[in-house]
Amino acid sequence: MAPLVHVLTHPLVQRDLSLLRAIDTSSEAFRAVIRRISRALAVHALADVATREVAIETPLEATKGQAIAESVVLVPVLRAGLGLVDGFLDALPEARVLHLGLVRDEETLRPSCYLSKLSSLRPDERVYVLDPMLATGGSAVAALDMTREMGLERPPTFVCVVAAPEGIAKLHQHHADVPILTASVDRGVDENGYIRPGLGDAGDRLFGG
How far lies 41's CA from each of 9, 10, 16, 34, 132, in Å? Predict the structure, then answer.
């Protein structure tokens, strides 16, 4: 396992991953479960986010607490990446969300961009690129290319639910310093670029087709 690949093996995450994989999980249930996994991934991903000391008042006395000291930006890769946004916002409501729309040609498996809201991204911000599936790695590399073109001072983090070894290898071939956070590294991709055993098309399962 590459040192920059972190697999969240918490029992509750793995229980929820099993629910996502199951073919009989409805879109409504799929959305709820992926939100739970996303929240767990967010807590792990944000474990070292910078904080600053603030003065607060409890019902009994004055004391000191902590506030987030840096700007966090979520970049969901549309459309499936939207499924990970709410869990992250549950953990960090003040995070900014900048959408990135990529579509994959089903024959060449190459992505093209149809929407980018990255123009307001600042170099000092902390960025998390969100996409439930890291399959062949084409979309992930394109998303990271576009994000890093904004002059980020540090590498973004790529967050997914399921990753394939082929996607991990391609991502790190182009972005060797980018951490990957996932709930599973699966067996591999098939001839159509789908992860096996995977969980199907995440976008279709989130939104009903």
Answer: 10, 10, 12, 10, 11
Distances (CA, A) of 173 to 9, 31, 49, 53, 170: 25, 32, 26, 39, 5
pLDDT of 3 over the 90 cut: no
Distance (Å, whole) CA 107 – CA 39? 34
Structure tokens at 158: 């790529």
Cα distances (angstroms) measured from residue 11 to each of 8, 16, 164: 9, 9, 21
- Cα–Cα distances in angstroms (integers) from residue 131 to residues 50, 52, 135, 139, 158, in the given order: 24, 30, 10, 9, 8
Let me know the angle formed at the C-alpha of 154 by 182 and 135, rounded to the nearest 5 degrees. Answer: 30
183 near 154, Cβ under 8 Å? Answer: no
Break the chain into its structural domains and give their ranges. 5-207
Instruction: Give the DSSP letter of residue 118.
Output: G
pTM: 0.93
Q: Please list, in sequence order, all residues whose beta carbon lies within 8 angstroms of the beta carbon of residue 198, skipping any fewer than 6 positions away.
A: 21, 133, 162, 186
| CATH number given to 5-207 | 3.40.50.2020
| Per-residue pLDDT tens digits for 71-113 | 999 999 988 999 999 999 999 999 999 999 888 766 666 778 8
